[in-house]
Amino acid sequence: MADDFKIAQPKQYQRLFLKDDIRPDGRALTGCREVKIHVNTVSSALGSAMVCCGNTRVIAGIKGRFAEPTINNPSSGYLVPNMILPMACNTKYKPGYPADSGVAMSNKLETLMTDVTDLMELCVVPGKVVWCLNLDIVCINDDGNVLDAAVLALSAALNNCWLPATHVIEETGRVVVDPEGEKTKLELKFIPISVTLSVFDDQTLPDPSEDEEKIQCGSLTCCIDDQSKIRAMWSSANLADDVLSAALIYVKKRASVLLSVLQKVSKTS
Taking 70 as the threshold, does the pLDDT of residue 2 lie above it? Predict the structure, then answer.
């Protein structure tokens, strides 16, 4: 009977729980699902990480290739994020062209990660060869709040990324990877953390599940770095000033918790 009511009246179903300060999955109003981070999960990648947030699972892998720099920035490399949402992770995604939400997430990740490292550190031969790092993020299972999991996985992968040594063949001028050379750790300017709040009626609910995302009237996503600086913010809800202020206070606290989990994992990797 409860399942039938949930399907027929999902909003009213959620309101029955919220009036008792609890969410349908048993969490408190400000409760978040357990987060686990595993680094170096893809042996062939320069850096990789998998994030589990409840039943949502995302894996990020960094692949490097040589590329030609632009004329305006002859000593700067590239970071190219790509969010992949396959049909296998959730039946709402269809085969064929990339999902609109995946394209939107890729654009947000590109905005967020543009200055995460000094792109000049990716220079191999000025004006000729630079590193292009493909930041591929694949959603394995989508049970809500994929963007937060994707940012966390990508931050963990970048924080554990090592660039291979390179060698220039004198006869041809060709640049190749030197497998015997010493690798260089990718230095980050900051570590971004994303925190999303789902807006339902007059409530802001962190780490929304898929069921909560389906009936939300909007959302607020704030990305904060390890120096407590806001790097990006996206909102599809009209929030009163006092609600927004309270939300940002919560976001900073939650980002601090996620950052500590990431740093703990990085130290033991």
Answer: no
